[in-house]
């Protein structure tokens, strides 16, 4: 069963590092935990009409955090992110 592209690519990851990388044709997305590289390539082709030359997937670990007042311990969400490398001249419009 094929998952929709919106399930694979959850959102663009808007950070300072990602904005610098976007100038060189590298875009960063938060992705589903069960997504693989071939599904990411298909989703990029379907949504943005460009073909990536390379995709790198990185697991973002959960981290322990504490609140200031009550000193309770919680965890950040974690997840996965994908670095999508495009050919020179190709761009993705992220609004």
Secondary structure elements and pairings:
Blueprint: H1 5-8, E1 9-12, H2 16-22, E2 26-31, H3 37-48, E3 52-60, E4 64-66, E5 73-75, E6 79-86
Reported for the largest beta sheet, the result is: 4 strands, antiparallel
The helix/strand order is: HEHEHEEEE
Tell me the span between the first and last alpha carbons.
30 Å
Number of helices: 3
The parts where pLDDT drops under 50 for at least 5 residues are none
Strand content: 25-35%
Main sheet: strand order: 1-2-6-3
Structure description:
A four-stranded antiparallel β-sheet has the order 1-2-6-3. The chain has a two-stranded antiparallel sheet with strand order 4-5. With 95 residues, it is of the alpha+beta class. The longest helix has 12 residues, at 37-48. 15% of the residues are buried. Strand 4 and strand 5 (73-75) form a beta hairpin. It has three helices and six strands, in the order αβαβαββββ.
Please give a handful of descriptors for the protein shown.
single chain; 95 residues; alpha+beta; two-stranded antiparallel ribbon; 6 strands
Compose a concise summary of this entry:
This protein is an alpha+beta fold.
């Amino acid at each position: 069963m094929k998952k929709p592209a919106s399930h694979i690519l959850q959102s663009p990851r808007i950070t300072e590092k990602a904005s610098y990388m976007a100038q060189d044709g590298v875009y960063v997305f938060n992705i589903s935990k069960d997504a693989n590289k071939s599904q990411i390539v298909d989703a990029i082709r379907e949504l943005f009409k460009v073909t990536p030359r390379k995709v790198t997937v990185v697991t973002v670990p959960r981290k322990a955090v504490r609140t200031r007042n009550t000193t309770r311990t919680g965890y950040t969400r974690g997840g996965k992110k994908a670095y999508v490398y495009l050919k020179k001249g190709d761009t993705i419009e992220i609004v």
